[in-house]
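agent> step 3/5: call structure_predict on target 'Transporter' (Halomonas salipaludis).
agent> reason: downstream docking stage needs a structural representation; sequence fetched in step 2, passing through unchanged.
tool.input:
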Amino acid sequence: MYETRERWSSRRAFILAVTGAAVGLGNIWRFPYMTGENGGGAFLLLYIAFVLLLGLPVMMAEIMIGRAGRRSPSQSLAVLARQAGSSEQWRWLGLFGALTVFCILSFYSVVSGWSIEYLIAAINGNFAGQGPAEVGAFFEGFLADPLRMTFNHTLFLLMTMTVVAAGVSKGLERLNNLMMPLLYLLLVVLASYAATTDGFAPALRWLFTPDPSAISVGVVLNAMGHAFFTLAVGACALMAYGAYMPDHQSLPRAAGAVAVLDVLVALLAGIAIFSVVFAQGIDPAEGPGLMFVTLPIVFAELPWGSLWLGLFFLLLLLATWTSSINLAEPMVAGLQGLGLRRSRATALIAVSIWLVGILSVLSFSHLEAVHIVAGMNFFELVSSVPSEIFLPIGGLLIAVFAAWVMPREMALRALDAGPVGFRVWQGVVRWVSIPLTALVLMSGLI
Ligand code: PFF
Ligand code: NA
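tool.output (status=ok):
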C-alpha cells in the first residue's frame, strides 16, 4: 500500500498548514451569521466550550491517526485497525469523511466566489460612500446572477485544484507564511476602528453577555457543529495532513496553537461585523449574507476605504483557498490510494465538485424555492447538515478509534506529548469528548 514520504518542511510549517485549513469562511463568514441566528453570547459561550472539550482533543485524535498511518485516511484507518487486531471496516470512516468534505467543498467554493466578486467591486471603488441599502442591493443583484456566480465558482475551484494537483506541502507553505500575519494585522485594524464607532458597545454586549433563555437543543447542536467546522475536524481532512507531519513535534502544543489562532480570528471578525450591525440597525439574524452586507460599510467610512476593503477580500480569499485545499486533500489522497495518478484524481474531483456546486449557485435564483428536506433548499441543506451532523458523527468515530482502538504504544508515540500528556488526552477523549458528542447528537436528532 502507498505510504507517503512527503513531509512538511518544519514544525512551524505544519502549524501554519493546519491553521490555514482551520481559518477560513468558518471564522469570518459562518461564525458571525451563526452567532446572529443563534442568540449571540449564548452561542459564543457554547462554541468556545465545545472547541475546548471536543474540537481540540478530537483534532489531536484525528492528526495522530494520520501521523501513525502515514497513508490516505481510509488506508491509515485500515492498516492501524489491522495492527490493533480490530476490523478493517474502519476504512469506511475515511470514505464517510470524503463524502463530508465533498458536500462542504461544493458550497464552500461558491461562497468563496462571492469574495472574488467583492474583491473586484472593491478595487473598482463600487462601495465608496455606500450605506446598507446600496450594499444590500449589490449583494442581491449578484445572487440573482447565476452566470457570474458560476464564473467565480469555476475560477476558485481552478485556483484550489492547481495547488492540490502539485502536492499540498510545496505550494501551501509559502502562501501561509505570507497570508496569516497579514490577515491578523488587517483584522486588528478593523476591530480597532470598530472600537471608535457607536456600534462597538452594543456589539460587545451582544457577543459577551450570554442570555440563557436563548439556549435550545438546536442552538447547542449548531454550536457543536460549528466547533468542528471551524477547526476543520471530523472529516478526516486533518488526518490527511497528519500523514505529512514531521516525526518529532508535540501534537497538543501544535493543536492548541491552531485553536487559539482560529478563535481569535472569529472574535475579531465578529467584533468588527457586529459593530456595523448595531450602528446601522441591521438584523443580526440576517443569515449567510451578513458579512457581505456589513463589511463594505465599515470600510467605506475609512480613509482609502476601497483599498482596505480590496485587501481584506484578497486575504479572505487566500484564507478560504488554503481551507479548500485542505477540503480537497482527503478525496485526492483517497483516489491516489486506489492507484489513480494525482493529476487524474484532482481533475475527477474538480469536475464533480463543480457540477454539484452549480446546484448551490442556482439555490439563490432558479432553485431558491425548491425545498429538498425540512423546508431547506439545496444550499441551505449542504451548508448545514454536513457541518452539523456529519462532522460530529465523523469526529465521534475518530475519537473512538484513537482513544479505544489504537494500541497504547502506537497512540503514545503519535501524540508525542509524554506519558502524562497522553493520559490526560486519553481521559478527556474517553470520558468527556465521546459522551458529550454522542449526547448532543442524539438529542439533536430526536
Ligand atoms: N475550517 C474551515 C473554515 O473554518 O472555514 C472549513 C473546513 C475545512 C471544514 C476543512 C472542514 C474541513 F475538513
Ligand atoms: Na475556522
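agent> step 4/5: record observation. The two ends are 41 Å apart (CA to CA).
agent> proceeding.
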